[in-house]
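Example record

The entry below shows one chain as it appears in the dataset: sequence first, then structure tokens.
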Amino acid sequence: MNRYLSGAAGYTGRRNLGGPALSVLFFPAALLYHELLLRLFDRDVPFFGLALLRIVLFSAAAGLAVTLILDLLPWRRAARIAGGVVLGLAAVLFCVERGCRAMFGLYYGVGFMGTMAGDVMGDFGSTVGRVILNLIPFILLSFLPLAAFLVLRSGVVPEPGKDSPARIIMAAVLVACQLTAFLLSTLGGVKNYYTYEFTPNTAVPHFGLATALRLELEYAVVGTPAPPLGEFFDDPVDTPSPSGPGESAQPSGQPSDEPSQPPKEYGFNTLDIDFEGMAENEENENVKSIHQYLASLTPSQQNEYTGMFEGKNLILITAEGFATPAIDEELTPTLYKLSREGFVFHNFYQPDWTQSTVGGEFAVMTGVIPNWFGKRTAMSMSVERTMSQTLGWKFREAGYSVPAWHDHTHSYYGRDRTHPNMGYDYAGVGGGLELPNNVWPNSDLEMMQATVDGYINDYVENGQPFHAYYMTVSGHGYYNWGGNAMSRKHREEVEAKYPDLSETSQAYLACNMELDLALECLVDKLEEAGIADDTLIVMTGDHYPYLMVMEDGTDYYNELRGFEDKEGDTSRYRNTLLMWSGAIEEPIDVDVPCTSVDIVPTLCNLFALPYDSRLYSGRDVFATNYEPGQYSNCMPLAVFANNKGQGNSWITAAGTYEASTKTFTPNEGVEVDEDYVKRVHRLVAAKVNYAKLIIQEDYYAVIQAEEK
């Protein structure tokens, strides 16, 4: 009996360890700790602000929900095990998200990470290992709540559980916290990130990771809320070209027409599509809205460059991690040559579309802004959609051969499905492309040597025109001597010229020398075959080399460029678009702001392919039916992804809007009216959301059915 009483007293002492406050506050405090830790380690997100209040409230509500659920379980042992599992999973999820942020600069949804985990671990295992080593402090701190729970578990989940009044009070506080946080999220300026523009990457900084995961699950079940499409409609503004109605202003660097010559009348890049008539008979409200929106747009005008390369060949390249600093007169002479001859773009950008390589590649290949669809990217969604407006299908329909290659695993990002669906005859390593060496990363030169002769010979011998597409890999990070075979291959040349640069910057320059050799091979082959004048080479990057930014904040990309900026600034995404042909005798300067989504409509215009300019997010960069200081829905517009939850930055011919500072800076000598910024904001929102709807609703299939 005495032993029993003694044991009971001891048990009571353990049960009451910490008191009632511990059992109520532990899980809310643990979840908030995780959220604050993630926020503290994210140098790109301000720690304080209204977002912090939302995160505190959401964390309190979620933590109280866990507490109530565990308290309602009749088995105390099972409840404590469940509590430990919850805290363990939370620690793992927060560590994984921190790793994604460190490795890719983004927060990803659990669904997307699940689909990509095998590929990432299989192809980038060594890189993941280095990231984990750098995250050891974060990992250790993340598991402190679990360690505390294991020590205090009998006090956190006491026996017996709470009585009914205590549970009612906890539930009332939970509802109050959740409702207040919900109102702060849906009635303020971040409503779109909580609803129709939700992505984990924008939601985490504003609402916390736990809420982002909840929303991901919720929207996976019930669907993402529809955007307020009516708010995006705008009255079309048809403005004449600077040279007058029906004329085409000459791009910078081109001589104007002789005064004695009559002005040439140019039409518009449109197809015979009756958007308004289709809208009248459409029952699907989303599709009807797309019809109405496209009908409201002013098409781009044809110009002196329309049909410049009609019937000729096209080679389009999306180069992994390529950016302007890779161009060096001595180390990469072919890049240097091609960037200064042909069309020379002075105001080109490749935005970070928050989807790593696949987002940039989608923009280059489709002319459509890449959006997220729950856990899926636009590229992934496109597999189940009609992609009839891509260059692959348009050139195929024009009688061209349309081969495509990637010198990495053929199925990575599902390219073995996406690229054929865009009209290409695709091959990659392990699926139709054989390379002499299996290293990481593979050689762009070897890919070019293995592929180029086939389509060139077919053109020379049989007159078969070609549009070839390449996705390269030699420029992939990480950038160091140990983990990048292409960097090691060219190490001596770079160290000899730039001995004082960091290893990261040296390795970046070195691996891009392999890309340069691939281009040299390509140009040499075209010239040897005598068809350089019959071929246009177009190339840009998929994204800037964000893996040059280290976990500790060291920014080697800034070192390589020689000046400072930060993630989110538009200047960070300034890049080079190569557009070269032996037929262009003198450089043609292009000064209008443009991005990767402008490539497809521009090429459609140059090759006189039948297309409707209103079906793309981008525009033909040579179209001149706009005035620089006047708003128009067909003016040059570079849209940047909302990759920090700050909104979309943009650049027009009138100036630059930086979302990070909420400021518009007009170009020198340009004046805009007081509604200009507001109207451009609305146009940007329309472009982003209708780009999403076009893929979501399989809109190109609707157009294709109408044409038949």
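Notes for this example: The radius of gyration is 28 Å. The first strand starts at residue 313 and ends at 319.
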